[in-house]
Every structure is written in C-alpha cells, then in structure tokens.
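Local shape tokens:
==================
===
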Amino acid sequence: MAAWSAAQYLKFEDERTRAARDLLNAVPLAAPRTVVDVGCGPGNSTELLVERYPEATVSGFDSSAEMLTAARKRLPKVAFAQASAETWTPQAPPDLIYANAVFQWVPDHVAVLVRLAGALAPGGALAVQMPDNLDEPSHRAMRDTAAEPEFAEAFRVPVAREALPPVGSYYDALKLVAARVEIWRTTYHHALADADAIVEWVKGTGLRPFLDRLAQRQREVFLALYRERIAVEYPPQSDGRVLLRFPRLFIIATKAL
C-alpha cells in the first residue's frame, strides 16, 4: 500500500478529530502518568492527549513515516516512534492506551485489544474508536466501481477489509482482562461542501487500497465513476452542502486496581 498522506488526512482535521475528542472525553482517568497514542497519525489526537494530561508522559507511534514527520513537527516535545499497532507491546505498563481510528485496519484486532488491555497498569484504561462504515454508500460505491469491467484485472482479487465483529465479541473478550467494558456507537453527520469533498475525504483513508492498485490513467477514470455514484448517493441539502453519514464504534476497557 502506498504511503499515508498526512496532508490528505488533515484536509478534514476538524471532522476527523471530533471522534477523537469524544473518545477522550469519555476516558475515566483523571491523572494518568503514562499515555500512549496508538496509530497517532499526524499528531492531531496526540495533541488532545497532551492538552488534557499536561503532567503525563505522552508518547505516540505510527507505522507511517510521513505521518510521524507531521506529528513531530506538530509536537516536537513528544516522543514518537515507528511501530505497528498489530505487534507493538509496551515496555512498561501504561495507564492509558488510546487508539483513534486505527484498529479497523488490523487483522484479528480483538485479540490485539485483549493483549493491550492486559498490559495496562492497575486501574488503567484502553480507549478505542473505529469507523464502522463499510456498509455506508461511500464504501459500497468503492466496491461497485471496482466491479466495473474495465477494472477487472486490477480487482481480480477484491480489496479485502474486515467488517467489525459483533459488539458482544469485544465485550466478552475484553471482560477476561478488564473490570469494566463500555461500548457505544455514535453516528456523525458531517456537513461537507459537495460530493467532491466526500471523495477527497475517503481518498485519505478507505479509498487508498483501491487507488493503490491502479495506474494514473485508471485512477482518474475510477475517481470519475466513483464521484458520479457519490453525487447520486449524497444529494445536496438546502444550502448546497452534503451530509456524510459516518458511524463509529467506541470502546473503553478499564482494568481493576
């Protein structure tokens, strides 16, 4: 997969950070000593952690070198490292492991979350937010466009991304290592300028695996066809803007003291 683009991701920083802020507001810890931002991206979520917990030692890691460059520029006093959310293990038990919009990309992530929750310090918390939008028109349109005959060779093997498992799977697994597990879903309705804005949004995330398989000319055709579908699925509101419906799943697992 091509490198993540921090600039593309941050085109909608306010909207993307809203869920990160909501997740943080629900964390039950008043004064954690050590905080880790898993999949920190360009540092927008890490900045929230630093602001809320100014006395804590906050660190972050991401698999993308470009994202880390942006994060270090944004927060030069924070220690950032390159690592994979799938395999990372803390050197010492942290009080808060925070992960905004990363584990939906990790195979068998329920097992990873259980491992991380078990690695927390006593009384610590694992706070996770994941997009739950694979059945939304924005993502169905990706698969429908990839099914067009002209892209048959590129998508002979379909782009694979696992749907989130049932909520009960998270609860049952995390209760093995946590004293309390809270799970909820929030659906955001982001008011964006137009259909093109939705295309720009997903180019930074869900559309990447599709575009990565295509040569430049094919990408242009794919994006044109995809935009046509988006324009139909997201008609303009009275002020000309469109509403991007975006469900997200939130989980907080708190370890016993």
